[in-house]
Amino acid sequence: MGLLNKLSYPQRLFVWLLGYSLLMVGCFVVFQYHREKEFKAEEIDKQLQLINTYILTELGEGHDVPDIRLDDFKPFDDIRVSVISDKGHIIYDNTLDSLPKTNHLDRQEIRDAVRHGAGYAVRRHSESTGNYYFYSAKKSDDGNIVRTAVPYSVSFRGLLQADYGFLWIMGIITMVMCVLGYFATRRVGLHIIRLNRFAENVENGAQISDTEPFPHDELGEISNHIVRLYARLQQAVADRDSEHRAALHEQLEKERIKKQLTNNINHELKTPVASIRVSVETMLAHRNMSDEKQILFLQRCLTNTERLQRLLTDVSLLTRMDDGSASILKELVNLTDIINDVVEDRQIIAATKGIRIENFVSHNVIMAGNASLLEAVFNNLIDNAIVYSGGTRIKIELISIDNDKVVIALSDNGCGVPPEHLPRLFERFYRIDKGRSRAAGGTGLGLSIVKNAVILHGGEIFAETQCSGGLLFKITFLRNSK
């Protein structure tokens, strides 16, 4: 019943009609099968009883059972003949070399013959031969029983099969009636289902769609008009609410990002500020320290001051990008020249680390963009490779260019990045090796700046570890981003 309740109203009506028809046909099938089988079994029993009567007549005239010829009896060629005493013991069987000593009075055909003078069994296993037989028994006046049997073979089973022609015709007619009944009730059923669903959806405040039309008649047209009008009204309200939710979500997201950024900045400021304070306090407490130690502490203060400056610069740039693309001025720039300038500026620093920068971008790439942000993209990527890759080569190449976009690849031959870190590589303040990153003076914002700058130019950036080793950044810029 649970599955039936999940069906639609026309389907349930059709299922009930089909079930009723199948039940009616099934009753006729069972009745007709048993009636036909019983009738045919009785016909076979009558033929075997004629043989039993013939054998009893021959025995009454003094003939022995082996001498009685049964060749004239058709259609049975292989007939098993047994003679059973009134005590239930077999005294003759034409298929056995030795007679069994078991009592046969409990056999169905023998029991019926003792009580009623004759009996039969349709299919029973013989313990003596191991085969199945159709048995027919008849009791003589002296109390002995003559039993004939024919093997229950495939052909014999076919003889007992009922004639299903009439039943198949009835079944086909019933199915045709069910199909016609289904189509007759389907139209009204669709009206009922859709109106019921519409009423439930309106009550529950669900989204109403007018994509499923009612049947094309007067009631269907009226229903279609009602649904479409309500759907349009609901869509207008949904659009208004969606705009409000989007605006609220954007505002909350900005506040969350700013709060997160503030917390992260506070955490990042602690280390350099603490280092500067310790250095200054140490110098104040030990006025007579050597010049070498004073220079050491002053260099430490300068290093942490530079780190603070880089952090503030990166935060200022991120805040500027978070305010939206409207505040970022774009003009036609030559991306090739920007890359050349960055590479030339970083060659000396890279050389001190034993790293060679190879620039294969020679085709002039003109696009709409912000020069300082594009410069920041390649500055941060190259600096990241110089400081953390551990390789000896940085390669920049033009992958593809068309009227809409340009794809640039920047790779190194260093140690690469473990796969588990790649999804979070562009998160703010995310570091793979925090101690090493801070020791190198990194702010943890470089790759986040890269990703935001690329997005502001309508593009996307992916990072992957190369099979040959090293990290590969694939950057896509839209050439006409707004």
Automatic annotation (TrEMBL):
- UniProt KW keywords: Kinase, Membrane, Phosphoprotein, Transferase, Transmembrane, Transmembrane helix, Two-component regulatory system
Q: Return one Gene Ontology term, BP aspect.
A: cellular response to phosphate starvation
List, for all copies, the residue spans of the domain called Histidine kinase.
264-481
Where are the membrane-spanning stretches? 13-31, 165-184
Catalytic activity field: ATP + protein L-histidine = ADP + protein N-phospho-L-histidine
Q: One Gene Ontology cellular component annotation? A: plasma membrane
SUPFAM superfamilies in the record: ATPase domain of HSP90 chaperone/DNA topoisomerase II/histidine kinase, Homodimeric domain of signal transducing histidine kinase
Pfam families assigned:
HATPase_c, HisKA
Supply one GO molecular-function term. phosphoprotein phosphatase activity
Gene3D superfamilies xrefs: 1.10.287.130, 6.10.340.10, Histidine kinase-like ATPase, C-terminal domain
The UniProt record lists the EC number as: 2.7.13.3
Q: Which PANTHER family match?
A: PHOSPHATE REGULON SENSOR PROTEIN PHOR
Supply the name of the protein.
histidine kinase
Say which species the protein is native to: Duncaniella muris
Q: What is the lineage of its organism?
A: Bacteria, Pseudomonadati, Bacteroidota, Bacteroidia, Bacteroidales
